[in-house]
Amino acid sequence: MCGIFFSLSASGGASPTQETSDLLQKRGPDSYTTHTVQKDIQAHGVTLACHLTFTSTVLSLRGDHVYTQPLVDSESQSVLCWNGEAWKIQGERVQGNDTERVFNLFLQAVKHDAVNGIAEAVSSISGPFAFVFYDAVNSKLYYSRDCLGRRSLLQGVDHEGNLKICSICDSASVDCFQEVGTDGVYTIDLDHTLNPQSFQSKTMPWGSGLLKQHIQPMNTSLPEDPPALTTDSPFVIELQSKLRQSLELRIQNIPEPPNYITGQSAKIAVLFSGGLDCTLLARLSHEILPPNEPIDLLNVAFENPRVAAAAKLNQKTPSPLSIYENCPDRMTGRSAHAELQKTCPGRIWRFVAIDIPYSECLSHRDFVKRLMRPHNTEMDMSIACALYFASRGQGSATTDPLVPSGPLYTSTARVILSGLGADELFAGYGRHGAAFARGGFEALIAEIDLDVSRLGSRNLGRDDRVLSHWGRETRFPFLDEEFVSWVVSAPVWEKCGFGLPDAVEGIDCEKMALRLVALRLGMERVAREKKRAIQFGARTAKMETGRSKGTDALT
């Protein structure tokens, strides 16, 4: 995980504010470097000095040492700021540090046909990314996010006319920023900029012939007489294998974090509600990681005064402990922890109970609002607060499900796993069932297709800005490009159980294929767990009494 700041200015260099610099260093605590370039631009017969400022921070998770950024090519003076994980390039797994591999790939690409070369290079990368690349040979600037939008990148022109591209909003011009789209690679030709005060970019869209589309089209075939799904169905068996392959890329060969103690410290943590998706990732991680490596399960619960007030009306005075232990995600988390211990007894499963009093939530609220910008609704805040405190990884830790509390602990893990994406791919939301009831398989397919198509434009950028604040990188095994393409190309009746004959008692239609994988792995209770949104499971939604809606803008 890295932090990026770039500015393009015709009126002198534009550096990030001190606040922005501090936030970028929280994302990447291992390195902070700035590189500047001055280039003359001819506009309307006048020569103007154009200033390019590149700042990068680094959280080092690949290779055997810290690779500082920005990378600068000594021969051409081209520059790269890279925030991503190139798991594969041209289908081959990347060993060691990926940033240098990507930089060399870009440098080779621009030697002949710059635009087509960059398009081919970006198309060959599999993994989450955001980058800014200056091709000094051809005087072109390129910047982009991956097609699923798994890394944050914002852009805006400030009041002085400076173009800024940053992982977070620069505090000097927060109102000017919007998220860089996930529709392709943006390019600015510095030799043909007619008006340096308003730099215009062009877009090379995904699937345009230049940029290869990573995600396959949705399978829209309709069933005639679909068979029941079972734990022995070929799709379910292959699903388990494909998910494990995606997970292997993301949890193998992670370097030891600072102050690491073998057998005690964790390299991996899971955003852990006890639900199906996150518990599946934890269970499969057990089969991949060495048996002496602990896994931290980060479970967050909030004191919600509205819930407490309702309890008082019912003449029930909750104890301080039950405020958190009665949160839905805490109860399912405890249950799933016990099932993991039972199924995989040789591993240290450290359950980290993260209890957040209402007063602490209020004290951090403005800061969370700062991180999640330009998102600015009540629902954004509810979700962002849960992710912010969960990724801090600080709470009461215990390895025994029968012992509900333990000493205060802060996770050492620098990599966090998230189950995000499973609901969109496997029809896990209530609206999917409603779509099927309304219009059968055709309406269900359309609803899933809509969800998958807007993954890159909805919440992943916001989540990245919030989760990364504590110097940890969140990885999404369900959002691996190859995995997503494989799932969307499968017929809908292999992914969920709507319209199918009942085959396994007590298994819900939503995400049925994933539930059957859980059964194959011995997770009986988790396979039957109901879907619950994080803001309701952790009780960050509707903390105050009133009629505010999730879509209401924050004041």
From TrEMBL:
The keyword NAD does not apply. GO terms for biological process: asparagine biosynthetic process. The keyword Transferase does not apply. One of its GO terms (molecular function) is asparagine synthase (glutamine-hydrolyzing) activity. PROSITE patterns: GATASE_TYPE_2. Residues 11-23 have a biased composition (Polar residues). Residues 2-250 form the Glutamine amidotransferase type-2 domain. Keywords: Amino-acid biosynthesis, Asparagine biosynthesis, Glutamine amidotransferase. SUPFAM superfamilies: Adenine nucleotide alpha hydrolases-like, N-terminal nucleophile aminohydrolases (Ntn hydrolases). Residues 11-31 are annotated as: Disordered. This is Glutamine amidotransferase type-2 domain-containing protein. It comes from Penicillium olsonii.
